[in-house]
């Protein structure tokens, strides 16, 4: 079932595109049918630079359990890293 829910969030970083590294300032996150991954549905994340018009992006299509494990791992790593390094100042507990 498609939720048609799409979240667009501001990001700061870089991503490896097809030709080179690109500035990443936006991520679109949604749960839908994948284009390439062999699953009925996937958690999809498209990273892009909203200031360009060339359509270059870094895209992920993740099997739902893999997406959940990735999210949990990211949160745990940020939690376990000293706040002075992450500059999160206790935002993750």
Question: What does this 3D model show about the protein?
Answer:
The termini are far apart. A 4-stranded antiparallel beta sheet has the order 1-2-3-4. The protein folds into 2 domains: 1-62, no CATH class; 64-93. A hairpin with a 4-residue loop joins strand 1 (6-16) and strand 2 (21-32). It has 93 residues and is an alpha+beta fold. It has helices at residues 64-80, 83-86; strands at residues 6-16, 21-32, 42-48, 57-62. The mean pLDDT is 90. The protein has 2 helices and 4 strands, in the order E-E-E-E-H-H. It is globular and about 40 Å long.
Descriptive tags:
alpha+beta, 93 residues, 4-stranded antiparallel sheet, 2 domains, 2 helices, single chain, 4 strands
Summarize the structure.
The protein has 93 residues and is of the alpha+beta class. The chain contains two helices and four strands, in the order ββββαα.
Low-confidence stretches: none
Strand order of the largest sheet: 1-2-3-4
Q: Kindly report how far apart the N and C termini lie.
A: 33 Å
Largest sheet at a glance? Answer: 4 strands, antiparallel
How many domain units? 2
* Multimeric organization: single chain
Rg, nearest Å: 15 Å
State which percent range the strand residues make up: 35-45%
Which bin fits the share of residues in helices?
10-25%
Number of helices: 2
Q: How many DSSP E strands?
A: 4
What sequence of helices (H) and strands (E) makes up the elements?
EEEEHH
Structural class: alpha+beta
Shape: globular
* Average pLDDT, all residues: 90
